[in-house]
Specification:
Layout lengths: L1 H11 L2 E4 L5 E10 L3 E8 L4 H6 L3 E2 L4 E11 L5 E5 L1
Antiparallel strand pairs: 1-6, 2-5, 2-6, 3-4, 3-5
C-alpha cells in the first residue's frame, strides 16, 4: 500500500500547467512555481493561508508548497505546475 502512495505523490495523478489567474480547481497536493508568483486566493488545509494571501507573499521560481488544495487563484503574471492526486 505504501508503494501506491509514493506513486500517487510522485505526479502519477497528472498535473496542470497554469499561466492564467484562475481560479483553478481540482484535487491538488503540490504547487511548483516556474516563475515568481503570488497566490491571491486559496482553498485547502494550509494553516495561515489567509495571511499568505493577505500579505501577497511572492513565491520564487523553483519553490514548492505541499498540502491539500481544491481551488487556487494567482496573480496575472504567475506560472505554476499544480500536481493532482
Amino acid at each position: 500500500m505504501g508503494q501506491v502512495n509514493v506513486v500517487n505523490l510522485s505526479g502519477a495523478g497528472g498535473s496542470k500547467y497554469i499561466t492564467a489567474a484562475g481560479p483553478h480547481t481540482g484535487d491538488f497536493y503540490a504547487i511548483q512555481f516556474v516563475a515568481d508568483s503570488v497566490i491571491t486566493a486559496m482553498t485547502g488545509n494550509m494553516e495561515g493561508s489567509a495571511d499568505l494571501v493577505t500579505d501577497a507573499v511572492t513565491f520564487t521560481k523553483g519553490d514548492v508548497i505541499y498540502g491539500s488544495f481544491s481551488s487556487l487563484t494567482f496573480s496575472a503574471a504567475s506560472q505554476a505546475i499544480l500536481y493532482k492526486r
